[in-house]
Amino acid sequence: MATDIRIDYYPTHEQQGIKFRRGHVLPFGATMVPNGINFSIYSSEAIDCTLVLFERGEAEPFAEIRFPEEFRTGNVYSMIVFDLDYERLEYGYRMDGPFKPEEGHRFDKSIILSDPYAKAIGGRDSWLAKPNWDNIYPYRSRLVFEDFDWENDHPLETPIEDLVIYEMHVRGFTQHPSSNVKNPGTFAAIRSKIAYLKELGINCVELMPIYEFDEWENSKENPVTGGLIVNFWGYSTVNFFSPKAGYAATGKFGMQVDELKTLVKELHKNGIEVMLDVVFNHTAEGDHRGHTISFRGIDNKTYYMLTPEGYYFNFSGTGNTLNCNNPVVRNMVLDCLRYWAADYHIDGFRFDLAAILGRDQNGAPLSNPPLLESLAYDPILAKCKLVAEAWDAGGLYQVGSFPAYGRWAEWNGKYRDSIRKFLKGDEGLVGEIAQCIQGWPDLYYYRGPTASINFIACHDGFTLYDLFAYNEKHNEANGENNNDGGNDNHSWNCGVEGETDDAFVNQLRHKQIKNALSILMVSQGVPMILSGDEVGVTKNGNNNTYCHDNELNWLDWSLMEKNADIFYFAQRITRFRRAHPVLRSRTHFHHRDYVGSGFADITFHGTQAWQPDFSSSSRCIAFMLDGAHAKSGTIQDDSIYIAMNSHYDALYYELPPLPNGQSWHLAVNTDMPSGEDIYDIGKEPKLEDQGRFLVGGRATVILVGK
Amino acid sequence: MKVTITDQEEITVVEVSGDIDSKTAPEFERNAKLAMDKSKHIVIDLTDVGFMSSAGLRVLLMVYRNIRSQEGKVVLVGVSEEIQDVMSTTGFINFFTIVEKPEDGVAFLKQD
After folding, report:
1. Whole-complex ipTM
2. Are A250 and A259 in contact (CB under 8 A)?
3. pTM of the model
4. What letters, b where the CB count within 10 A reaches 16 and e where it falls short, cover A641-666?
5. Taking CA atoms, what residue in B is nearest to A55?
6. N or C end of chain A: smaller count of CB under 10 Å?
């Protein structure tokens, strides 16, 4: 090793027996260098900076080293400190400067600040382990090792239209005792359930926030249930570069980085991509009443959007708004995503309340937001999926108009609402349904169907089961008198509010879930399923369970037996989609025959073939995809006919004829009992009557022409 | 922590006792390097190791990489259940052959 040491890696200064020297300005954060650690941090307005060093877990620091003035380059303070035990080290900073909130400055050198570029955070090492509330430095910056052996792993780069996304919560997935895993609620436990994910037929997991957050944030006793209200979902970031230690079985050993990387590597080995739900719109520091953890004390005016009076703009609905289009903050976001893509092999990112990322420093929407543009053109992120939640809590709704640069896809909230309304039997939806199943060309004409992430349920709002079991939200357990959560659920309880013994109602609910899954899987664009919907999970009508570390959010694995018919159906409908390239086009339909098959790529039908009823009272629509046009005519697939009936009565649908030698086979009929509602690929029975099909009331039928 | 190195024909056995943490890991690493200089087939006996921190695991990873680059083999002996659990969760375990007794380790390397 001695031969590696450059002549400049020798100390020039000493204080309390600790040796140090001028450091490197880049990279920001703390990095290992021969015999020492390089610390680098920036602040535009600080007048002084001190490095604070702790032995892991100790109450008091063992050293505080003020950066000599000559160690500052521009606004960057950097220093190499020698002979530190980097495994046992925790570090932070004190920043001195003005405390003038009306001018945007909130410096307070009595507070030890966490490094925004820390790669791991100590202090919340095990989920809900009681913290020491008197800790002078609760969220402690740590270093991580960079020796993980990825072997030959590489992000999968699956074409986005071929993904079936599964939105899940790390802890919620396996914390329920019925999961039968060794380390419930952890990254390791997800790894032990990979076989289940494969069985379900998904090929991308989207993990709800895994950046370090504090589950204790705003915790209080639940006035209704007496339990503890916590931050379960984690949409409140403490540090953007650190995985949540409490999600790792080995968090108490400080090995959360290795555990998460091992999970990513194993998922990749099984053909499953990993997408992260990332929250760059705000931080855990809250508004002017919140705690100072890091950003506020380092450079308040740089990191946050502030009103002219120095208060926090609140476009996120959570207290503050990260100043994403400030050039310095923009670079931090870019550095962060590059780090996750390169060091964790992450396949894609879903940006929470992404409309905020397109606002300028005063909150006004930008026509050409530099952050979104930088991400879209970044060479390191070039193959990552970028998905926007294209709205924010400040009223900016950009579904269809999110600045995309040919890269960005978005959660299609309109898809969700239209399908929900259609399924509950609203009239006048047929035109929108035609848009939904085509990847909404009216919204994404230039961007193609792959811009549309299709979903009917996600973590926000009702589960798929609750969508058909509740007319109203029931959020009493959240302790806010049922005032929180959205009211625009477009749900229908099928006749009884909540759980019931009524066999007819329960059967209808199961059928509606199968209708929803069917439509989702035959729609152009990218389907996303909420974890648990494949087994009919309920949250008792609560549509905003962000604060519950209990059965409301824990997947009950016994539902696999209770709702075996839903699981049976879900496993097969995902495979149906993946078996048929005609359902996964990169480009919009042309509505004409451009390969000479005699059929247009897509044709619409109704109860009469070739006669779709787009009138305002219609609840019926059918469409046919011509197999010769699969993947723009480059692949030969079966033809597929889908009939949707949201009328309460059964209706005959006249079938369009197939070319000579081909005939219609039944793949899906949600009106039938389990076992006859969906058939395995290649085992679809041939229809006796090739001329028409009786589609049950509130049912979906899928036929395969071959 | 105490480390003993013995040679059994062309196989080197590294026997560790005590705790391997960030304070003792550098010495463990020094000894492991000495052993690797002697042989490309190594048995590391951890039967008498009570606690091993991530620094200890990282020495094992370093050994594995060195040995692999020389097309040698490394066998671990007497790894406690807790350490095995951490190794498994963090992906380290796949790199090693783990046996219960030192003689099993030597036998495993000899048959190769």
Report:
1. 0.88
2. yes
3. 0.95
4. bbbbbbbeeebebbbbebeeeeebbb
5. B22
6. N
